[in-house]
Amino acid sequence: MRDPDLKRRSIYLLPNAFTTAALFAGFYAIVQAMNGRFEMAAIAIFAAMVLDGMDGRVARLTNTTSAFGEQYDSLSDMTSFGVAPALVVYEWALRDLGRWGWLAAFVYVSGAALRLARFNTNIAVVDKRYFQGLPSPAAAALVAGFLWLVVDNRLQVSPKMVSWTAFTLTLYAGIAMVTNLPFYSGKSFALSKSVPFWGILVFVAGFVFISSDPPVVLFALFIVYGLSGWGVWLFRIRKAKKLSIAAEVSGVK
């Protein structure tokens, strides 16, 4: 008789290869930051995001999900989207702020660790359409996106302003990861489903739009996403109030 838990204990090459590549990109970002090549460090974090988004989808498409893959993915995420962004932004801008700089970096790292731990324990009980708290890749994109924007576009702003803006973004990203704000997960979008022709045109247009100026476009997109949880939260509160008022009115009648 075949062990029913064998599949869960198995180790599959294809999805874990993407996870390893994401882990390498996060490690590479740290090395590049230590060498003062901050633009390459930011690009490596975004590369890790793409690879991290692919491993889970590949595992589901090929039916090769496993408990090992889930744990390996979490450890990779902690490195690529927890430790790497904090160290990169600290070396780039937060070091000049003294203890405030490393405290902001630590808040970010601890927020990422707590967010991943909560995600692993609540994965079976939360609404899969939304993340509980800002996902760690999006938090990393906020930090790395600002770095890439400033370095690539050579913004004429004072170093002190850059440092405190980086401080604010790092602190916000770290705190947002441990909130209960709902952020759209995109998991309802299935790659295996067919799409109309206009869907391909939208994808191509989006690719061209991002390619026109990646640092500006990506940072703007993730700023919007990083604030979207507040919009969904306020919408739910207003909807709940309307339902409560409607219930009271119908009860009076």
Automatic annotation (TrEMBL):
It catalyses: a CDP-1,2-diacyl-sn-glycerol + L-serine = a 1,2-diacyl-sn-glycero-3-phospho-L-serine + CMP + H(+). GO terms for molecular function: CDP-diacylglycerol-serine O-phosphatidyltransferase activity. Gene3D superfamilies: 1.20.120.1760. Its main location: membrane. Its EC number is 2.7.8.8. GO terms for cellular component: endomembrane system; membrane. GO terms for biological process: phospholipid biosynthetic process. Pfam families: CDP-OH_P_transf (PF01066). The chain crosses the membrane at residues 12-31, 100-118, 130-150, 162-183, 195-211, 217-235. Keywords: Lipid biosynthesis, Lipid metabolism, Membrane, Phospholipid biosynthesis, Phospholipid metabolism, Transferase, Transmembrane, Transmembrane helix. PROSITE patterns: CDP_ALCOHOL_P_TRANSF. It is found in: Endomembrane system. It is an enzyme of class 2 (transferase). It is a multi-pass membrane protein. PANTHER family: CDP-DIACYLGLYCEROL--GLYCEROL-3-PHOSPHATE 3-PHOSPHATIDYLTRANSFERASE-RELATED (PTHR14269), CDP-DIACYLGLYCEROL--SERINE O-PHOSPHATIDYLTRANSFERASE (PTHR14269:SF61). Belongs to the CDP-alcohol phosphatidyltransferase class-I family. NCBIfam families: pssA (TIGR00473). This is CDP-diacylglycerol--serine O-phosphatidyltransferase.
